[in-house]
From TrEMBL:
GO BP: any one term: fatty acid metabolic process
The name this protein goes by in its record: Long-chain fatty acid--CoA ligase
Entries under Gene3D superfamilies matching the protein: N-terminal domain of ligase-like
InterPro entries in UniProt: AMP-dep_synth/lig_dom, ANL_N_sf
Recorded family membership: Belongs to the ATP-dependent AMP-binding enzyme family.
Pfam families: AMP-binding
The species this protein was found in: Lachnospira eligens
Length: 471
């Protein structure tokens, strides 16, 4: 078996979370792995807690567990424990409305749930605690290091679905981590602040798995109430965030003096923000990737906005200009949807729906993001087609179109009754927002009596729509 020497520690070529955690526990047992408020946990204890949790979960026959709750040490232990036990893990947004969360649990056919409201005691698919699950004594049990670790299911937006479950393997995740290491430095001396949600690929990989792989200290943000203060509370050297979060931190002078690196992802970083951050002598990186590629395609560190590819051999441009990606970071597929998987994953090559070119120095230049998906600066993704259908289905709407204009998610509505007032549709949109939750709340509506402007192929002309909004 090949041995890789990294930062003085030995890593085997078997890509597993168990090996990652064990390696750090053996090489740096007393080093702090995770900090949550005043709680500090060493790599040795993290490995011990995860292994015990995995042994506990192996007592139960079901193969798929969903976890939802705010980020915490217990969330991390249960997440790793599920995967190390050989169970499949679905990462679900804790702040989703109840009905939306139930829909995702049904969609992924989970057998069990782990939730903060149940103190992360194993519960059934309806979040009712399993009677025998509170007894988690595993004395005398020995973990089988040959256990096949479970896959991770995350949710993203596609052309036809707002919450499409994507299946990633541990091998996908750890190959992404090694690719990140080839372009961005993180050492065992670093302190990484994880303030963004861990249920999506950017937060999960860049603010948790990547630093733990490198033996760094991960500090878990204490929630929205402490966003203003967490940088000065934990004094990170690396800050991970979405464009909107980093811009907010910049505006409130929230960068501590120890901070030297900012990694922005989940959405493209506006040039104004990138320029402002670079002027402050920070190392700034904007990540280009999506859930289907384990968040790993390229990284921008230059003013021109082009991206250094994590793997030059994995990215190419199709004849029509579409960016296509192959290699070990590409997903296994969409959960329980072979047909749609085959539409975008052809012979192991993922068709992103984004368009670009490779410039004369081998860097990726993005020309157009997937028009079927709205990418918000918060990192949230919206299926434009499905959302347009939902808006049009609202009572009294003849045509509906969603767009992100002037930093606000805006619904342009053509009413059936041209005399209908805007207040009527504001109330109906408010009800729509209640079902969707905070993720993609429609913040503005524009009523229009004339039909929406369209392109020659019949699709709505978004550029013309935005001009109408501006007028």
């Amino acid at each position: 078996m090949m041995i890789i020497i990294k930062d003085g520690k030995t890593m085997t070529d078997k890509n597993t979370f168990y090996n990652m955690l064990k390696t750090n526990a053996e090489s740096r047992p007393d080093a702090v792995a995770v900090v949550y408020d005043t709680m500090k946990v060493t790599y040795e204890k993290l490995f011990d807690d995860v292994t015990k949790k995995a042994l506990h979960f192996q007592k139960f026959e079901g193969k798929r567990i969903a976890i939802f709750g705010p980020a915490s040490y217990r969330w991390i232990v249960n997440m790793f424990g599920t995967i190390v036990a050989g169970k499949e893990l679905a990462l679900v947004d804790f702040f989703l409305p109840h009905d939306s969360r139930v829909d995702l649990l049904k969609k992924t056919e989970v057998n069990y749930t782990l939730t903060s409201t149940n103190q992360y005691i194993l519960s059934d698919e309806n979040s009712i605690i399993i009677s025998s699950a509170e007894k988690d004594n595993v004395d005398g049990l020995i973990y089988d290091e040959n256990t096949q670790e479970g896959d991770i299911i995350m949710f993203t937006a596609t052309a036809n679905e707002c919450d499409k479950p994507v299946v990633l393997s541990v091998d996908n995740i750890l190959n992404a981590v090694m690719a990140i290491n080839s372009r961005v430095e993180c050492t065992s001396d670093d302190i990484v602040l994880a303030q963004i949600p861990l249920h999506n690929e950017f937060g999960f990989i860049y603010s948790l798995i990547w630093p733990l792989y490198n033996g760094a200290m991960v500090c878990i943000g204490r929630g929205l109430r402490h966003v203003d203060a967490d940088t000065y509370y934990y004094n990170p050297t690396i800050l991970i965030g979405t464009p909107s979060m980093i811009d907010y931190q910049r505006a409130i002078s929230g960068f501590n003096k120890e901070l030297n690196t900012i990694i922005i992802g989940g959405a493209s970083c506006p040039f104004r923000l990138f320029e402002n951050l670079c002027d402050s002598d920070l190392k700034v990186y904007n990540i280009y990737g999506m859930t289907e590629t384990s968040g790993c395609v390229g990284v921008n560190e230059l003013y021109d906005g082009s991206y250094t590819l994590f793997d030059n051999n994995a990215v190419s441009i199709a004849d029509d200009g579409e960016i296509i990606v192959s290699g070990p970071c590409v997903m296994k597929g969409y959960y329980n949807d072979g047909e749609f998987t085959e539409n975008v994953l052809k012979d192991g090559v993922y068709h992103t729906g984004d368009y670009g070119r490779i410039n004369n120095v081998g860097r990726l230049v993005l020309l157009q993001r997937n028009p079927d998906i709205i990418l918000l600066p918060t990192g949230e993704k919206i299926s434009r087609v499905r959302t347009n259908e939902q808006i049009t289905a609202i009572n009294g709407v003849a045509e509906g179109f969603i767009t992100f204009y002037n930093n606000r998610l805006t619904a342009v509505i053509v009413p059936i009754d041209k005399s209908a007032s805007e207040d009527i549709f504001k109330r109906r949109i408010d009800k729509y927002n209640e079902k969707k939750g905070y993720r993609w709340e429609i913040q503005k509506i524009v009523l229009r009596k004339e039909p929406l402007p369209r392109n020659s192929d019949g699709t709505v002309d978004e550029e013309a729509v935005c001009e109408l909004i501006g007028d």
